[in-house]
Fold this sequence. Notes:
Low-confidence stretches: none
Number of helices: 7
CATH topology of the largest domain: Rossmann fold
Largest sheet: 6 strands, antiparallel
Number of strands: 16
Mean pLDDT: 93
Amino acid sequence: MNNVLVVYKKSVYEMYKASSDPDVVKFVNSDCSDAVSIRHSHDVQMRSLESILSVLTTKQIHFDSTYRADITADKMLNKNLVISVGGDGTFLEVSHYVGNIPLLGVNSDPEKSTGFFCCSNTNNFVDNPYNFEYVIDNIENIEKVKRTRLARMKLKLDGKVLPELVLNDILVAHQNPAANTRCRLITSYDAMKNKDTVEHKGSGILVCTTAGSSAWMYNENGAIMDLSATHFEYIERGVRNAHSHFAEELRLTSLTRALCIFIDGPHLKYDFPLGKELYVTRGQPLNVIGDLEEKRKSFR
């Protein structure tokens, strides 16, 4: 391991203090408890990032660093390891561009962030198995630092493969959250390619991977899937008594002019125009540093 990419997030304070809205700037620099908490979280995140870079420098590990909004697939070239510093949002954004390179998530503020995907932190507690330095020192020893392979989704829109692999979920919905979503969903649900067709009219179709089944899908009363599974789970939102279902692959046809495909949250989306088709299949799995199955048990 001699060529590492570190991807970091900006804190809420960093973003808000640079706002063009004077009321926002005034708020984050005020003495109210919420503003004090935001500034404290900023300090914690900065110390975490400084600690990570210091460890890599001390151990003479060559690294490059980049802000998460500037990340591209090209920056992954010739890297042996990618480290995301932040929470699950940063990890998800980085995961879109990582191929077979191991990805290590470091929770930069464990007090405020759940960080399910982040199997490391910079807390120097005694016998802390998630300490960043310990993980780096033992990263080649899979008995001490375990790995998890997570299924991802590959998307093909109107015949063109989208560059981002999906780790958690996609939402196909109207760009206006108060408007109806109309689309046709065809699913293949076993090796014999048996199919079901759904004419959806509601708040959209949510589709998740195994990892995503304990996130948004869980809050939609979906089933938690085993992390070793490779099929998908989907549910119709805004439909009375809807239940989640499973599929090996999916084809969705837009029956609405202004649909969008939201990938792993609100930041990444594609227009899904009337009559166009979205094809969802298995993508290249993600190689995660850490035992996410064990970590998931502590969240149940």
